[in-house]
Write a structure and sequence with these properties.
Strand order of the largest sheet: 1-2-3-4-5-6-7-8
Largest sheet: 8 strands, antiparallel, barrel
Radius of gyration: 32 Å
Strand content: 5-15%
Number of helices: 18
Order of helices and strands: HHHHHHHHHHHHHHHHEHHEEEEEEE
Length: 410
Amino acid sequence: MIIWLLALVLFVCLGYMGWCFGAIRVAGSVIGVILGALLAFPLGHIFAPIITATGEKNPVVVWLVGPFLAFLLVVIIFKIVGFAVHQKVDVHYKYKEGDLRQGLWLRLNQRLGVCLGVVNAAAYFILISWVIYAFSYWTVQVVSGGEAAWYVKLLNDAGKNLQSSGMAKVSAAIDPLPVDYYRAADIVGLIYHNDLLESRLTHYPAFLALGERGEFQDIGNDKDFTELRQRQPPFMDILNNSKAQNILNNPDELKEIWGIAKPDLVDLNAYLKTGQSATYDSEKILGRWDFNPNAALNVIKRTKTDITPQDLLRTKQYISLSFSKTTLVATPAPNRVAFLKDFGKIHPATKPNTAPTIDIQSFHGTWTGSDGKYQFSFPDKEQGGTLDAVVEGDRLTITGDVYPLVFDRE
């Protein structure tokens, strides 16, 4: 209903304006609208420096506003040209032709203006339908219940009317936006309506390195933000949260996130739904790993068959004190970064009857290898700077340090 009402208003108003302004001026508008729509995105980048100079940092806003300004500029130029040509023709018939020819021209100009006004209305209707189609694809996916603002509800209703009326097919046929725009909307909508998928998202191999950054860990550890997400508030409430704003106001970080996500949007969507990644599952080392003290102790028992009960007890205490919170993160190519975190080193007590001190360290290194057999290199680590590793199912065993390190996939 909204779409057909919009069409009726456009055709009546612009048809009447065609009658009033005449064929030449309306022709300038029609040409401007068509060329403006074709040139909006190719010319939109020209306005990026101007938009950023106003203080806008969000690259998504810059990307959207630039084509809009380019469209307006092209339309305005052709409207000015149309008015200028109309003025010259009007002067010619008014002062250099007779009354009969002037009257015939005015009648032709008005009637042809109505026809071009209808064409102008059709161009605007298709263009507005595409705008509704492109934006409602996002807003429909990030609305929960009836808590959306009135203008979002109106946009969503218009988007649904596009589908039911068939105009969505026309909008899709002229759509200049890349398919990644819509794939990203599908992923955002999926996560918005399923907050438990956030945990799966943080385990996606492409995002492992990002997850080690302080700003993302702050979001993950923020109880208020977690509770906000679980309530599924209006999407803008999430975006306006201070933790989210710290990332949204950092254009370099947004570009980096998009650069990482863009090549894997199809695989990421499938991973969120199934927990399986066709791109990364073949590399067994990738992921987050938690230290398993009991498994590590079993490895020691198997490899040191002559260990005494006293030494075994001391080893168990050492492992428990040093590695109880140790984790390992291995990220995919091309960087193949490894993070060994909360790795403890015990310093013996300097005085009798006092507990030893534990120095907790984290190391940043790289990994190499494939097919379940790998090597880690941690240049800053004093002992075992290069470590051998084997992955069997969901278990990772590292040797080459003072004690073997056994991890389970998180």
